[in-house]
Every structure is written in structure tokens, then in C-alpha cells.
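Quick one, C-alpha cells below. Sequence please?
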């Protein structure tokens, strides 16, 4: 659509007619509408919280992980129902890193190191493998997470539903305030965070480890979830905040340049 058309009008038309899952068939629209119904229902009636495994793969992100992710995790409700499963790739001092985590986060922690060349798919699959709970929440190191994450996962993973939340991308040097001046909602893409039960994840074969650079594996997995006729829920979640970090992605490099010039 024309660039002058506001997203509030443009996005619904794109979502109905042009979103990638429509290439699989119009049954995806029916399932997406069911997902919207589930969102409405869970605002009225909450599911019972269940234990979750939060799975994270790390490579050169330890500093930002300790700065934002861990403090937000330590502040979560139902902390006794959270298991944090981490796979670290690289030459980090694992014992020291674990000590720094435990200074803030007192919940269950599983952590291992791999000497494999880093890929997001590989480290997350390993983190899932070492985890133990039925509900999985796959997340990246650059996020703060909402204190009600256990409740959100329970609300969005019953029956054959799974959750790919819409997150907020914070621009460089901007405060964590949800406005168009400070960042943007990742409504067009941004499917890297996901929550589903372990059986669903296994049935889909996990993330495809043929993706050896950053990106692509999330979109591929999301499309496979649609192909399997899962109810894929997309919802804006203010607590899921992506903190800025340097990126090789052309779009985010441009946003960094605009921020440095004071144009954001």
C-alpha cells in the first residue's frame, strides 16, 4: 500500500490478504481469527499458571543479558514455576557468568556451554533439550520480560494454540517508553520469540539448524506452525521490550544512523 497510508489502516488489510501464511491457504485466516478470539477470552478468564522453561541461547550478549533480562526475570510472578535454560556459545567463564546470574535470580537455573559455532537455531534447540517443563518460552538475550510471563504463557498455549508475541523494538538511546518516538512494534516481522508446548515443538522438528546466519529460522518455524494448523496467536505485549544493540541488519543499521543524527 501507499507509504502515506497509516499502519492502523494498512496493517489489517495486509494481515487479511497478504500476510505470508495466506500462501498456505485460507484456513490460516480462520485459525488466526480463532487466535484473536482466544486473546479476547483470556482477558476475561485467565488460565491456571503452569511451570515454564525459558530457553535462551547466548553469544557475546552476556552484558546486556545481565543488565536487562535477569533483573526483569527476578521480578516475575510465580518465580517457583520458572526454569531458566541457557546455552552459552564461546569462550566465556561459565562459572563466573553463572555466579553473576545467581546474585540476582534465585529460581531454577540450567546452564551449559557449547563449543559449536554459534547459530541461534542450534543454541535454542540445545536449551530446549536440556529443559524439563512442558511449556517452552524461547527468548533472546536482548529483552526485558514481563512480570506476568508465566500467566501469559498459560493463557496462550492451551489445546493446539501457540504464541508468537509482538514485541517492542527500542531505538538507540531512547527511554523504555512505548511510543513511536522511542521505538516501534514489530508487527510486520519479529517472530523470534515463541511459546508452545514441548510436544508441538518436537512435532515441528525444532528450529531448522540449516540457518547458519542470524534470522530466517524464526519465520520458517512460524510458517511450519501455520502449516501444522496450530492456532498461532500474535499479541502486543508491552513487557517484552527489545533493547537496542549494534546490528548488521540493514534496517536496524539505518535506524541506528538516524538515531545518531538525532532524527529519531
Amino acid at each position: 500500500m501507499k507509504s502515506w497510508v497509516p499502519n492502523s489502516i494498512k496493517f489489517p488489510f495486509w494481515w487479511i490478504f497478504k500476510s505470508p501464511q495466506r500462501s498456505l491457504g485460507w484456513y490460516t485466516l480462520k485459525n488466526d481469527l480463532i487466535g484473536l478470539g482466544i486473546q479476547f477470552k483470556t482477558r476475561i478468564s485467565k488460565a491456571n499458571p503452569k511451570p515454564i522453561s525459558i530457553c535462551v541461547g547466548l553469544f557475546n550478549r552476556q552484558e546486556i543479558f545481565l543488565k536487562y533480562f535477569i533483573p526483569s526475570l527476578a521480578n516475575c510472578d510465580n518465580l517457583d514455576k520458572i526454569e531458566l535454560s541457557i546455552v552459552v556459545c564461546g569462550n566465556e567463564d561459565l562459572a563466573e557468568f553463572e555466579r553473576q546470574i545467581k546474585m540476582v535470580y534465585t529460581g531454577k537455573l540450567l546452564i551449559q556451554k557449547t563449543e559449536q559455532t554459534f547459530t541461534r537455531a542450534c543454541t535454542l534447540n540445545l536449551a530446549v533439550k536440556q529443559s524439563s517443563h512442558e511449556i517452552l518460552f524461547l527468548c533472546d538475550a536482548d529483552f526485558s520480560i514481563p512480570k506476568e510471563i508465566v500467566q501469559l504463557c498459560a493463557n496462550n498455549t492451551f489445546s493446539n494454540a501457540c504464541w508468537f508475541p509482538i514485541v517492542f523494538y527500542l531505538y538507540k538511546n531512547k527511554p523504555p517508553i512505548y511510543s513511536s518516538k522511542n521505538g516501534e512494534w514489530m508487527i510486520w516481522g519479529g517472530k523470534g520469540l515463541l511459546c508452545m508446548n514441548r510436544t508441538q515443538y518436537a512435532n515441528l522438528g525444532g528450529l531448522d539448524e540449516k540457518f547458519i546466519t542470524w534470522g530466517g529460522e524464526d519465520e520458517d518455524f512460524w510458517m511450519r506452525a501455520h502449516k501444522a494448523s496450530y492456532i498461532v496467536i500474535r499479541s502486543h505485549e508491552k513487557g517484552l521490550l527489545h533493547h537496542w544493540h549494534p546490528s548488521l541488519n540493514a534496517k536496524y543499521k539505518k535506524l541506528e544512523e538516524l538515531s545518531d543524527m538525532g532524527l529519531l
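The domain at 14-260 is CATH 3.90.550.10 (Spore Coat Polysaccharide Biosynthesis Protein SpsA; Chain A). The chain is about 35% helix and 20% strand.
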